[in-house]
C-alpha cells in the first residue's frame, strides 16, 4: 500500500512549523556527534540459579546509575518478536483515514486508541514525527477475536502473548527493585494491575527533515517501569552524565527504563532519565512499549525518610503533566512535586531563637521550641545585641584587613524599621572573637561599603547586575573616596545559611542583592532583611513575575541545578564549547584555511585586543578567527575570500597602543635593548597606517576603534553590526530563540 496514504498528514497539519524549519530551523540535537553506547546487559536466566542475588544487584545498580538497562533471556522468543513486528506493519499500513476514524479498527478495543503527532506543538522542537496505538492491557488480554478481524487477517494471539509476558516481567523487576530498598513487593502487586497498564505500538515514518524533527520529543515516562522492544533501525537516545547518547540496538534484548513514579517512590535512588527518539530520513522505525502504571487513586509517597517529594496520587500527577503540556508545551514532571522547605517558617523559628520579640512580630507561635505563651517574651531586654556567626566574622576581619578598615572601628549601628514601635532596636555587638592584636594601627582609612551577593545558583546573574550598576559610579569609587567591596555567596539553598548571611550583612551594614528562584526563599530573604534593617534588592523576582504575567503561566520556582529537575546540558551549551575550541585553534592567524568556517573574523595590529575579544565572543557561541596585521607581512588570501560581512577591523589610538606594547614587553621580561621597534612610536604609527590602508581597500569591513573600550563594549558593537548585516533589518537587534 502507498505509504503516502497510510502516513499521517504531518506536512499539512504542521505546515507553518515545517516552513519555518525550511527557512533555517535549529537541529533537533541528534547530529553525528552523539556517541553510540550499549546499555548495561543483564541476563535474567540467572534469577533462577545461584547467581540470583548478583543479578538483582546488577538490576538495582543499573537503575540507580543509568535509569536504563537491557535484559536478555527474558522469556519471549525471537519468533514472537518477529511476528509482533509483522502485525505492527500490517496495522500501520492501513490507510490513515481508516486508522483515525474507525472506532472499531481494533475489534473490542476502546475508541480513540490511535494517536499521531503532537497536537500541542507550538514549535518544531515540540513535534513528534510518529504514530501509535495506545491500548489498555485488559483490552488486549480479554480480546476473544482477532485484533482486526473486519479489516486485517492479523491474529491477536501474538500480541496477547507478548503483553502477558512483559506484564509478568514488569512485576518481577518491580519486586526486585522494591526488595533492594528493603520493602516487600505487595505494593506493586496490589496497585499495578492489568487494568491500569497499557501497551503502545509505535511507528516512526521516514522524515525528510530528520536533523530538525524528533520522532518522539525529549521526555521522561510517567509510570513505574517501561519495557521496550525496538527494531534494529536505532534512534533511541538518552541523557547520561549530562550528555545525549545513542542506544546501540540489541536484537536479543528488551530495554527497561525507570519512570517518574519509581524515582519518587525510591526517593530519588532510582533515576527516571530523559530520553527521545530521533527520526530517520529513509527508513521507518517500529517499537512496542509496555507501561507499568498504578490505578489513578494510588498514592505515591517515598519509602525513605526524609522524603524528597510530597505524596501525590497518580491522577494528580497526570493532571499536572497535562496542565503543563497545555500551558508550556512540554512536561515538567517530578520537579513540580519536590518538597519545598517552609523557608519562611524556618526564618521565623531562627529569628525567634535570637529574639522572641521578633518571633512574636512574625506571628509564629512556639517556633522557639518553648511551650510558653508568646507574651512571656516581653521580659526580653528592649535592646538585644546580635552575635554574628564566628565563621562569617573571621571572613569579615580578613576583608577588613584587605580593605584597610580598622578592626576596632565598628560599623554604624543598623536602624530597625521605625514604622513598628513594638520591634526592639537592634545594634550589633563587636566581634567577640576579635583580639587587640588584630588591630591595624597607624592607617587612616575611608569607610568601605559592602555589597553581599546571594544566589541559589552560580551567582553569575546577580554579580553582573551589580557590576553593571557600579559602572554608573566609577567617578567616585575607590580612589575618589567611596570604595566598595562585593562578596559572593553562591549555592545558598536553605534558610539557615541565608539567615547567617543576612545577619552578617546587618553587622557590616551591607547591601544585600539576591537571585533566589524559590519564591519562599526570596520571601524569607525579604522578611529577614526587613526585620534586621538590611537594605536589599531582589534581582530575579520582578522580572520573573513580569514574564509569568506575559506568558500566562507560573514559573517552576526551582534553580536550574536543583536536584531532581533533570535538566541536561543544552545543545546551546555544547555549541558554545565547540565555538571556544574552534576560536582557540584559529587564534593569531593560525589555520587561515578555516576562515570560511568562522562566524566572525577579526583583524587588526598586535595588542588591539583580538584574542580576548575572540574568546569573549566564543563564550557567547560565535566561532571567531582573528588575523594579525603586521607591517610588511602579506595577509592570507583566504581573508579576502570569506564573506565580507563576517570581517571586522580593529584600530586604536597610537599613544595608547605604544603604552600597551611597552607594558607587554616588560611583562615578558624584555629589557630596553631587546624590545626592537615593536613599541617605538614611529613603528606603531607606521603599522597603524599600514592597517588603515588595508581597511580603505576593503571599505565594506567595519572598523571599530577600541581605544578606551572594555572587551564587553567592543563585543556589543561587533554583535550589533554582525546581526544587522546578517538580518538586513530596519531595526537592528540581536535575536535568540528559547
UniProtKB/TrEMBL annotation:
<feature type="compositionally biased region" description="Polar residues">
    <location>
        <begin position="368"/>
        <end position="380"/>
    </location>
</feature>
<keyword id="KW-0808">Transferase</keyword>
<keyword id="KW-0418">Kinase</keyword>
<keyword id="KW-0479">Metal-binding</keyword>
<dbReference type="Pfam" id="PF03171">
    <property type="entry name" value="2OG-FeII_Oxy"/>
</dbReference>
<keyword id="KW-0547">Nucleotide-binding</keyword>
<dbReference type="InterPro" id="IPR027443">
    <property type="entry name" value="IPNS-like_sf"/>
</dbReference>
<keyword id="KW-0723">Serine/threonine-protein kinase</keyword>
<feature type="domain" description="Fe2OG dioxygenase">
    <location>
        <begin position="195"/>
        <end position="294"/>
    </location>
</feature>
<keyword id="KW-0408">Iron</keyword>
<comment type="similarity">
    <text>Belongs to the iron/ascorbate-dependent oxidoreductase family. GA2OX subfamily.</text>
</comment>
<feature type="region of interest" description="Disordered">
    <location>
        <begin position="365"/>
        <end position="440"/>
    </location>
</feature>
<dbReference type="InterPro" id="IPR026992">
    <property type="entry name" value="DIOX_N"/>
</dbReference>
<dbReference type="InterPro" id="IPR026565">
    <property type="entry name" value="PPDK_reg"/>
</dbReference>
<feature type="compositionally biased region" description="Low complexity">
    <location>
        <begin position="417"/>
        <end position="431"/>
    </location>
</feature>
<dbReference type="GO" id="GO:0005524">
    <property type="term" value="F:ATP binding"/>
</dbReference>
<keyword id="KW-0560">Oxidoreductase</keyword>
<dbReference type="Pfam" id="PF03618">
    <property type="entry name" value="Kinase-PPPase"/>
</dbReference>
<dbReference type="Pfam" id="PF14226">
    <property type="entry name" value="DIOX_N"/>
</dbReference>
<dbReference type="InterPro" id="IPR005123">
    <property type="entry name" value="Oxoglu/Fe-dep_dioxygenase_dom"/>
</dbReference>
<dbReference type="InterPro" id="IPR005177">
    <property type="entry name" value="Kinase-pyrophosphorylase"/>
</dbReference>
<keyword id="KW-0223">Dioxygenase</keyword>
<dbReference type="InterPro" id="IPR044861">
    <property type="entry name" value="IPNS-like_FE2OG_OXY"/>
</dbReference>
<dbReference type="GO" id="GO:0004674">
    <property type="term" value="F:protein serine/threonine kinase activity"/>
</dbReference>
<protein>
    <recommendedName>
        <fullName>gibberellin 2beta-dioxygenase</fullName>
        <ecNumber>1.14.11.13</ecNumber>
    </recommendedName>
</protein>
<dbReference type="GO" id="GO:0045543">
    <property type="term" value="F:gibberellin 2-beta-dioxygenase activity"/>
</dbReference>
<dbReference type="GO" id="GO:0046872">
    <property type="term" value="F:metal ion binding"/>
</dbReference>
<keyword id="KW-0670">Pyruvate</keyword>
<dbReference type="GO" id="GO:0009685">
    <property type="term" value="P:gibberellin metabolic process"/>
</dbReference>
Amino acid at each position: 500500500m502507498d505509504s503516502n496514504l497510510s502516513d499521517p498528514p504531518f506536512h499539512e497539519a504542521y505546515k507553518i512549523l515545517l516552513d519555518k524549519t525550511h527557512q533555517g530551523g535549529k537541529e533537533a540535537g541528534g547530529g553525528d556527534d552523539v556517541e553510540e553506547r550499549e546499555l548495561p546487559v543483564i541476563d535474567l536466566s540467572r534469577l533462577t540459579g545461584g547467581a540470583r542475588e548478583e543479578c538483582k544487584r546488577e538490576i538495582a545498580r543499573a537503575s540507580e546509575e543509568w535509569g536504563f538497562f537491557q535484559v536478555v533471556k527474558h522469556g519471549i522468543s525471537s519468533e514472537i518478536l518477529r511476528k509482533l513486528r509483522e502485525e505492527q506493519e500490517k496495522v500501520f499500513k492501513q490507510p490513515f483515514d481508516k486508522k483515525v476514524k474507525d472506532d472499531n479498527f481494533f475489534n473490542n478495543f476502546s475508541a480513540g486508541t490511535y494517536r499521531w503527532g503532537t497536537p500541542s506543538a507550538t514549535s518544531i522542537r515540540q513535534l513528534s514525527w510518529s504514530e501509535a496505538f495506545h491500548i489498555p492491557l485488559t483490552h488486549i488480554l480479554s480480546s476473544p477475536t482477532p485484533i482486526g478481524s473486519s479489516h486485517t487477517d492479523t491474529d491477536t494471539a501474538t500480541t496477547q502473548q507478548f503483553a502477558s509476558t512483559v506484564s509478568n516481567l514488569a512485576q518481577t523487576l518491580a519486586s526486585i527493585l522494591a526488595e533492594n530498598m528493603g520493602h516487600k513487593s505487595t505494593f506493586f502487586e496490589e496497585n499495578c494491575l492489568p487494568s491500569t497498564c497499557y501497551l503502545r505500538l509505535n511507528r516512526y515514518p521516514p522524515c525528510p527533515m530528520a536533523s530538525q524533527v524528533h520522532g518522539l520529543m525529549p521526555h521522561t515516562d510517567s509510570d513505574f517501569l517501561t519495557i521496550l522492544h525496538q527494531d534494529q533501525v536505532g534512534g533511541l537516545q538518552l541523557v547520561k552524565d549530562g550528555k545525549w547518547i545513542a542506544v546501540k540496538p540489541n536484537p536479543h534484548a528488551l530495554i527497561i527504563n525507570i519512570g517518574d513514579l519509581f524515582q519518587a517512590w525510591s526517593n530519588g535512588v532510582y533515576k527516571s532519565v530523559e530520553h527521545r527518539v530521533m527520526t530517520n530520513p529513509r527508513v521507518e522505525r517500529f517499537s512496542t512499549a509496555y507501561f507499568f502504571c498504578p490505578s489513578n487513586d494510588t498514592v505515591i509517597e517515598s519509602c525513605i525518610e526524609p522524603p524528597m517529594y510530597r505524596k501525590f496520587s497518580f491522577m494528580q500527577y497526570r493532571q499536572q503533566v497535562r496542565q503543563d503540556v497545555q500551558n508550556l508545551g512540554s512536561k515538567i514532571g517530578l520537579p513540580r512535586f519536590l518538597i519545598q522547605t517552609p523557608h519562611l517558617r524556618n526564618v521565623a523559628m531562627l529569628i525567634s531563637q535570637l529574639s522572641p520579640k521578633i518571633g512574636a512580630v512574625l506571628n509564629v507561635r512556639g517556633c522557639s521550641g518553648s511551650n510558653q505563651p508568646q507574651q512571656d517574651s516581653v521580659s526580653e531586654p528592649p535592646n538585644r545585641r546580635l552575635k554574628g556567626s564566628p565563621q562569617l566574622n573571621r571572613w569579615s576581619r580578613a576583608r577588613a584587613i584587605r580593605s584597610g578598615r580598622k578592626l576596632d572601628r565598628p560599623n554604624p549601628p543598623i536602624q530597625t524599621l521605625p514604622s513598628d514601635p513594638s520591634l526592639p532596636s537592634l545594634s550589633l555587638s563587636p566581634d567577640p572573637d576579635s583580639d587587640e592584636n588584630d588591630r591595624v594601627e597607624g592607617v587612616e582609612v575611608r569607610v568601605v561599603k559592602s555589597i553581599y551577593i546571594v544566589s541559589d545558583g552560580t551567582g553569575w546573574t546577580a554579580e553582573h547586575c551589580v557590576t553593571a550598576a557600579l559602572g554608573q559610579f566609577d567617578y567616585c569609587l575607590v580612589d575618589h573616596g567611596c570604595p566598595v567591596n562585593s562578596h559572593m555567596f553562591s549555592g545558598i539553598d536553605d534558610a539557615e545559611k541565608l539567615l547567617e548571611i543576612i545577619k552578617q550583612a546587618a553587622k557590616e551594614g551591607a547591601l544585600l542583592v539576591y537571585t533566589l528562584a524559590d519564591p519562599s526563599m526570596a520571601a524569607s530573604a525579604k522578611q529577614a532583611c526587613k526585620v534586621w534593617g538590611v537594605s536589599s534588592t531582589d534581582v530575579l523576582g520582578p522580572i520573573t513575575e513580569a514574564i509569568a504575567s506575559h506568558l500566562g503561566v507560573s514559573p517552576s520556582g526551582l534553580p536550574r541545578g536543583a536536584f531532581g529537575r533533570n535538566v541536561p546540558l543544552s545543545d546551546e551549551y555544547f555549541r558554545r564549547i565547540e565555538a571556544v575550541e574552534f576560536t582557540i585553534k584559529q587564534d593569531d592567524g593560525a589555520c587561515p584555511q578555516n576562515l570560511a568556517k568562522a562566524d566572525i573574523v577579526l583583524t587588526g595590529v598586535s595588542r588591539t585586543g583580538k584574542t580576548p575579544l575572540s574568546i569573549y565572543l566564543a563564550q557567547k557561541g560565535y566561532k571567531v578567527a582573528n588575523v594579525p596585521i603586521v607591517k610588511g607581512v602579506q595577509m592570507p588570501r583566504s581573508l579576502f575570500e570569506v564573506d565580507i560581512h563576517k570581517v571586522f577591523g580593529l584600530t586604536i589610538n597610537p599613544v595608547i597602543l605604544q603604552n600597551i606594547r611597552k607594558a607587554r614587553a616588560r611583562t615578558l621580561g624584555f629589557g630596553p635593548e631587546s624590545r626592537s621597534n615593536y613599541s617605538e612610536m614611529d613603528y606603531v604609527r607606521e603599522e597603524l597606517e599600514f592597517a588603515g590602508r588595508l581597511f580603505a581597500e576593503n571599505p565594506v569591513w567595519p572598523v571599530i576603534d577600541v581605544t578606551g573600550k572594555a572587551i564587553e563594549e567592543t563585543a556589543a558593537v561587533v554583535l550589533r553590526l554582525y546581526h544587522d548585516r546578517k538580518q538586513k533589518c530596519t531595526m537592528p537587534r540581536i535575536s535568540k530563540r528559547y
